[in-house]
Amino acid sequence: MSLAERIADLFFVPKCIICSAVIERPGICIKCQGELAEAVKPVRGVEFLEEVRAAYIYEGALRDAVHRFKFGGKKSYAAVMGDRMLPLLERMEARPQVISWVPTSAERLRKRGYDQAQVLAEYIAGRAGLPCRRLLTRRRSGKQSNLGNKAARVANAAGAFRTAEDVSGLSILLVDDVVTTGATLSECARVLLTEGASEVRACAFACVKGIVK
Ligand SMILES: [Zn+2]
Q1: Considering the entire predicted model, what is its pTM?
Q2: What is the mean pLDDT of the chain?
Q3: Cα 15 to ligand 1 centroid, rounded to whole Å
Q4: What separation in Å is there between the alpha carbon of 60 and the centre of ligand 1?
Q5: Ligand 1 centroid vs 213 CA: distance in angstroms?
Q6: How far apart are the CA of 193 and the centre of ligand 1, in A?
Q7: Distance from Cα 207 to the centre of ligand 1, integer Å
Q8: For residue 17, how far is its CA from the centre of ligand 1 (angstroms)?
Q9: Angle of CA points 166, 168, 174, to nearest 5°
Q10: Half-sphere exposure of residue 39: CA atoms within 13 angstroms, side-chain side
């Protein structure tokens, strides 16, 4: 450990990832746990996926926390978010053979320094005792964050992904941070199934309210 790391360690104060209240261990404080809206039902209607589950509804302070995780360098949130996603895996109708993720573009990766979905996937796979593999690559950058409607997202996702290795016969769990329209997940699953994957499921930390029916 470097001197700088030792000093940071010495002054490290665990905080709630949602409201930044100081707590005993890094996590989500009791108050926020009571206030966050859980996504109780599975996400419906995402084409090509057997099952899609999310832990929470993407709104309010949780939305801000996800933004800090994605854009604000808060990579350490992955452990807290991943812990909340592990029960989703337990609830799945079938256990996947391999965990992968919806990859971000190379351009964004350079800007942010890490792929947030990959960090989440690796954490979850480690805790679940499953292999985590890069099964997809993203061919080009889409302006996904700015696309509001589903049609625009479907068009944007089409042709954006390809497989990075042989996926034939695999049952796969894709990890992502947020499900908005499901268009990106759907396109990833379509590509994996076309290349011979046996089935694709997905879990996310959060999903937009309208998609849980
Ligand atoms: Zn809190």
Answers
A1: 0.88
A2: 90
A3: 8
A4: 12
A5: 27
A6: 40
A7: 19
A8: 7
A9: 80
A10: 30
Cα 31 to ligand 1 centroid, rounded to whole Å: 6
Q: Where are the domains of the chain?
A: 1-35, 37-211
Most confident of 10-19, 60-69, 101-110, 146-155: 60-69
Q: What is the pLDDT of residues 30-52, one digit of tens each?
A: 999 999 999 989 999 899 999 99
**33 C-alpha vs ligand 1 centroid, how far in Å?**
7
At 111, give phi and psi (nearest 5°). Answer: -70, -45
For residue 81, report the distance from its CA to the centre of ligand 1, in Å: 13
User: Closest Cα to residue 187, out of 102, 92, 121, 119?
Assistant: 102
Other C-beta atoms closer than 10 Å to the C-beta of 176 total: 25
**pLDDT, tens digit, 9 for 90 and up, residues 121-169:** 999 999 999 999 999 999 865 555 556 677 777 777 788 999 999 999 9
Number of alpha carbons in the 13 Å side-chain half-sphere of residue 103: 21
**DSSP-derived 3-state class of residue 155:** helix
Residue 20 Cα, ligand 1 centroid: separation in angstroms?
Answer: 6
What is the 13 CA–ligand 1 centroid distance (Å)?
A: 14
Residue 173 has what pLDDT?
A: 98
Is 37-211 in CATH node 3.40.50.2020? yes
Q: Which two tokens stand for residue 28?
A: 């989500």
Give the Å distance between the CA of 206 and the centre of ligand 1.
Answer: 17
pLDDT score, position 3: 72
